[in-house]
Write a structure and sequence with these properties.
The chain has strands at about 15-25, 35-40, 45-55, 65-70, 90-95, 105-115, 120-130. By secondary structure, it is mainly beta. The protein has one domain: Sandwich (Jelly Rolls), CATH 2.60.120. The strands form two sheets. It has a four-stranded antiparallel beta sheet with strand order 1-7-3-5, with no helix packed on it. A three-stranded antiparallel beta sheet has the order 2-6-4, with no helix packed on it.
Length: about 140
């Protein structure tokens, strides 16, 4: 597996940073953990919240699950129960508030489904975080 991570980035002034990523049910490798990057949290960063905008409902027959996490724990930041993938609309979730990292940590989006395969589904995830810039 190649390095699909994006370099950690942070503003040097005191402000909230974010990653924004739009992905669809048919994004290449979306079903494999650690393959579709959203960004890399810099060492010392702390997640504050996420805005999740489902622009096209995911329609696999049985389950539709979009998560954000690390290659090892694909739901470490945004888990299955944090929003409804089958309904168009926006959700603000604080479930990941306080998630922090001690080293630069790549984050990835994953979509898993069961039952008849999806034919639609699109989401934009905006993950807000505060970098450690007090040094």
């Amino acid at each position: 597996m190649g390095n699909f991570a994006v370099a950690a980035r942070k503003n040097v002034t005191h402000q909230v940073n974010y990653f924004r990523a739009s992905r669809a049910y048919n994004t290449p490798n979306i079903g494999t953990a650690g393959m579709v990057p959203i960004g890399t949290l810099p060492a010392g960063a702390v997640v504050t919240h996420a805005l999740i905008n489902v622009t096209a409902a995911f329609n696999a027959a049985t389950t539709n699950v979009v998560t954000v996490g690390t290659a090892a724990a694909d739901n470490a930041v945004i888990a299955a129960a944090d929003f409804n993938e089958g309904v168009v609309g926006s959700t603000v979730t604080f479930a990941a508030a306080g998630y922090s990292v001690t080293v630069d940590t790549p984050l990835f989006i994953r979509y898993t489904q069961t039952g008849t395969a999806a034919t639609t589904g699109a989401v934009t995830i905006i993950l807000f975080f505060v970098p450690d810039n007090d040094r």
